[in-house]
Structure formats: C-alpha cells, structure tokens
C-alpha cells in the first residue's frame, strides 16, 4: 500500500476492530468483572493488561497485591456502576470509540460519573462537551440534579461551571423550586461565591435563611418571636459558611430592618456592629471584610436570543472564535435599539434609531425557517450610499438557537466593503453577504450570498424576516 497521510488512521481503525474482536470473543481473558447490584448484576470478561493500560483506576485496582483470584482468573467486584453503563465504557476502552447519539441526558450523566470514577479523563471531557453542546435544554431542566451528582467528580469541572453559570443567570428558578431547601450545601456555597448571581442581595439572604431553617435539626418553630437562644445558635451553626458570602452592605436600610435584623443573633458580633454603623453613620469604614457588589450580568431584552447566545457573540467581538456554549463572563451589555414587531420593518425606522450609535449587533429570525442569523458592525450605521469600513465585523448563524453545534461564524475578508449604508436598506453586510431591503418582512426582500466575508452562513439565499432586533454594544 502506498503510504499516505491517512495510512495511520487506517491502521488505528484496524487496531480498534481487532481489539473489539478480542473483547466480543473473550479470547484469553484473565479477569471477570462483576458489575452492578442485585438483581441487576452482569459478568464481563476482559484483559487486565488492556484495562490497566487504559484506566489509571484499574492500574491500581488490578494490581496483584489487591486482586482476588479464582481458577486462574482475577475476580473484581464493581457494584456502584450500572452494567449497561460499564458495557459502553468497556467498548470505549477497547475500541477507542463511543456512540452518544441515541443516549438521553440521564444515561450520559451516568456514563460521565462512571468514567470519572474509572479516571478516564479523555472520555469524560468528550461527554461533558456533548452534554453542553447537544443537551443544554435537558441540562437547564435538571441543573440541581446534575450539580448534585457531579459534586464529587474531579473531571466534571467544565460541566459544573456551565451549570452554575446558567443558574447565576436565573437563580430564582432554583431558589424558588420545591427541592431547594433539601439541596446540597456545597451547591449553595458555590452559588453564593459567584459575583454574577443575578438577584437582589436581600432576596439571596432570604433564601439562605429559608435553606438554613430547613437544614437545622429540631428547628420546628416557624414564628421567630418564639425562638430560644439555642434556636438562633443552631441556625448560626448551620449557616456559618454562608454568612461571610452575603453582601450585607448592598442591602438597603429598609430591607435590613425587615429581613436581616430579625436574625441578627446569628451574625458575628463585629459584623452586626459594622452593618448597624453602616446604616446609622454613613461614610464609616467597616472592620469586616466587604465583598464587592455582584455583577448583575448582561442586560438583555430580546425575543430572539438568550444570554448564552449573547455571551458567545461577545466572545466573537473580542476576537475569540468559539463555536459552542461558553461560560466566559460577557464584557458588554446589549442595549435594544429597535425591534421589528414593535417598531416596524422599514429602513427609515432602522436608520433613525440605529445610525451613529457606534458598534451594534443585529439578529434576525427567518420567516418560515427555524434559523437565527445576525451580524456585528464594529463601526456605525449611516446612509449616503457608502460602504462602511471595518476589519472587525462579522456575520453569523445561530442555527435554530437550540443546538449550538450548528453555529457558523464568518469574519470580514474585504474590510473596505464590510457594511453598506443606504436609505432603502436596513442592515447590510458586505456587498451581498447579509442584506435587508425595506420592508424586511416582505417575501425575498432579504438575502445572503458570500462576497465580502470569508464564508456564507446559511443555505437560504432569499428570505423574509419574521423578527429582527438591533442592539447597541456597550462595554461594561
């Protein structure tokens, strides 16, 4: 065979098939793994050399001094992994392949936690990325459960951070849920440590107190006026790790009086004194550590995109070429300038509201098609039948907005024709790359053909707009 660049891949494929045959035919197996708990227990025959080579966990667990032997075979018990999950992992260790397409979110989570226990870092990283990119709607519906299950998984950092970022955007959905009072303390602490928790501090405090009461043994009295000193001491003990994470100095005097003062016995004496002094003697310098105010996240008023899309666009504005979900904090706010269904779909309105407003982001929902397109003007819009120059502009597709693996980004190739300003057109990127002729919601008045940008971002050449929005990009 003539050597080519693909020869190594062909050899790897052959190796994978041969090892797969070895597993399926139990040829020369020297270990039997009993996986699962009654009544769901299965035996798997495998090869110690392969397991130890592929997994640091098995490298130690199948060492001779720890292994139990029967009839020349090593017997290994693994009761805390589901047999069907271990079967997939075993195939991965032999084949170097895994099929995730038909798996639901819970099965993927089981694979992830099992892979973490078996110290399969590459495997875990792949599943985390798959969950974030392909199952983010399921993640949004199961955030607390995902965080609880992955709490002790050392290889699940990316997934946990992504979930915490989602909660930080809408913490009320978690704090107000029925399961919040029984949630894990580590989850609560992880949230309180975040500077981007988008909720008023007094609300955060009220939910922390609610959680503390629910998790303090023998604290049954609901009327605080009937509490004993022992009750306050017990609650203080439950919340002693949480209290330093509350931004008490961002709570107004009225809210302090109504919500904090009734529980002041659970606060350290010095902190309580500092808070009182802060409210009664403005300008006084507290002795306690004062945490900075929380960043309330992005100000986003949109019917088309969500904060997860806006953060992605912010990354593109900063020159990053991320194609998928990101939990990097946004450096910009998006200020809504115009919305089609409220302000109209004509070029005159667009220019009256958007011209000379500096950098802007345009997003549009195609009519009759489940696709979101958009563009970034790094300069500013104007009329006069002139091209607008910029080397930092780009156009993009967010697909249907649900699967971020469908995202497409195209940066400007010919900076001299980045945008075009004309009284008959609304947003107009390149000579033909993405342009909206007035009125934008008329059939085929909008189009997308590659010219001034490196690639086209949609297969739809002509279309009408169901909705469009333009945002002024404001640095934080």
Would you mind describing this structure in some detail?
It comes from Gigaspora rosea. With 476 residues, the chain is of the alpha+beta class. It folds into 3 domains: 13-155, Potassium Channel Kv1.1, Chain A (2-Layer Sandwich), CATH 3.30.710.10; 170-280, no CATH class; 307-475, no CATH class. Helix content is 37%, strand content 17%. It contains 18 helices and 16 strands. Strands 5-16-6-7-9-10 form a 6-stranded antiparallel sheet. It has a 4-stranded mixed sheet with strand order 2-1-4-3. A hairpin with a 4-residue loop joins β12 (425-429) and β13. It is flat, with a radius of gyration of 29 Å. The model has no long low-confidence stretch (mean pLDDT 90).
Radius of gyration: 29 Å
Report strand %.
15-25%
Helix count, DSSP H or I runs of 4 or more residues? 18
Distance between the first and last residues' Cα: 60 Å
Major sheet description:
6 strands, antiparallel
- Total individual domains: 3
Low-confidence segments, given as residue ranges, are none
How many beta strands in the DSSP annotation? 16
Computed structural class: alpha+beta
- What is the arithmetic mean of pLDDT? 90
The backbone outline, from C-alpha atoms, is flat
Question: Which key phrases capture this entry?
Answer:
BTB-POZ/Galectin-3-binding; 476 residues; Potassium Channel Kv1.1, Chain A; 3 domains; six-stranded antiparallel beta sheet; flat; TLDc_dom; SKP1/BTB/POZ_sf; BTB/POZ domain-containing protein
